[in-house]
Design a protein that fits this description.
three-stranded antiparallel beta sheet, six-stranded mixed beta sheet, Rossmann fold, binds 1-O-pyrophosphono-5-O-phosphono-alpha-D-ribofuranose, alpha/beta, 4 helices, 9 strands, globular
Amino acid sequence: MMHADVEEVLLSGEEVQARVVELGAQLAADYEGREPVLVSVLKGSIIFLADLVRAMPIPLSIDLMEVSSYGTSTESSGQVRILKDLSTSIEGREVIVVEDIIDTGLTLNYLLRYLHDKGPASIRICCLLDKPARRLAPIEIDYRGFTIADRFVIGYGLDYGERYRNLPYIGVLRPSVYGAAPPA
Ligand code: PRP
C-alpha cells in the first residue's frame, strides 16, 4: 500500500532489495579475504546497511558515524560537524563507506578527508542512490545502486522531518506535504 503522502513510487521494495543483493554479492566477491569495515552514516543509511551486510557472506565489521551539516534539514551547507565518531580504529583497514544518498556530495567530501587522515589501507564508496544533478563536490562512487533524477525522495531510510524512514520503498513526497517551496 502506498502511503498517502507519497506522490509516486520511484523504486519498489522489490527493486531495491534485488539491487541491494547484487551490490552485496559484488562487494563480497571484491572483498573476499580482506575483512572490510563498513562505515555507515546515521541515520538514513542504516536500513541500506542492514540489508547490504546480510547479502555479504564474508567476514566484515561495521562502524557507525553520525554527522550533521549546518544547513537546513533539506540543504547541505558543506560544513559538517561530527556528532558520533568511529568506535574502532580504521588504520590499515579496508574501508567501505556506505551511504543511502549522495546529493551535493558535500557530506561525503568532508567525511572522506576525515577518514583518509586515519590511515586506512583503502576507502571505497557504496551508495544506494546517486543524485548527480545537484553535485557540488566531485565524488568517485565505486558501487552505486541507482542513479535518480532531482526529486525529493523518502523511504528506505530517507526522511522528511524524520518521518517516512520506515517505508519499504523509495517514493517521491507529495508537494502538499512540504508546502509551497519544494525541499532541495
Ligand atoms: C543525507 C545522506 C547523506 C547526505 C547526503 O543525510 O545520508 O549523509 O544527506 O547529502 P549531500 O551529498 O548533499 O551532502 P541527512 O543529512 O539527511 O541525515 P540523515 O541520514 O540522518 O537523514
